[in-house]
Write the structure tokens for this entry.
Amino acid sequence: MAQRFALMITPVDAADTRKDFSDTFVEMDVSAPALSVGEFSTQRGDGVFESIGVIDGHANEVEAHVQRLAHSARICDLPAPHLEQWRQAVAVAAARIPQGEAVVKLILSRGVEHGPAPTAWVTASPAPDFSAVRREGVRVVTLDRGYDLGAGERAPWLLLGAKTLSYAVNMAALREARRRGADDAVFVTRDGFVLEAPTASLIVRRGDEFITTAPSAGILHGTTQLSVYEYLESRGFRTEYATLSVSDLATADAAWLVSSIRLAVAITAVDGALLASDPALTAELNTFLRSPR
Ligand code: PLP
């Protein structure tokens, strides 16, 4: 039977000095209603979230995820989350699925209209089985994101660097990719630069150098990309943040989509043209990403 778990959190002020937050958590019945009909997360997608990979009960890269939750909250003018409260909630949730691969989700919503505080909760559930796609890779199509490289800095109200709950566009891009006979998408700016996938960061290899799009382009700074970079640097490779054109992707020596739950998957084709891949390095990256971090 699939184990699922949900914990409602009463968010405390970021300056709260208590050590133990367990009395701010309430375990919920996952099959029972838990949110008010006035919730802005459900009405407007107005909130931020994180998805953390859990392997055999160990939650990976918790610090990077709670820091990014705080970063997203800042961009969205949400009250600053108390990081230690969230770390403790993650630990409680991860411990509930001690075997296999799981996902812990952190959700911080603007709350209810005229309500006293944001609404916050974490869930834990088993992850889909991604072993085949980690072995076989994905074919991607490039899809227009509708704005240029400078939009993130020019128009902060677009919330481009925040991991908001408004993922309808990201999901629509995945459906469009499938309609075009591919498995995944890579977003492209109006001025021809590749950004990220709807649910993953892009890393491109050119010789012994690995390049990813700089977060200043208005994309998420991926926690998995950060870990992969640390690993590659420890292996003596050079890593870089830069701008990458569509032809940089199409002519790369290899490329990957990386994310917390699916981990590293090789890109095997771009817009129908085959791309070289490196199955040994992909397997090595996934061995590293599956280890406790
Ligand atoms: N970019 C987007 C748009 C995402 O949704 C995600 C993850 O869901 C990522 C990048 C990769 O982030 P992470 O490695 O932290 O999972």
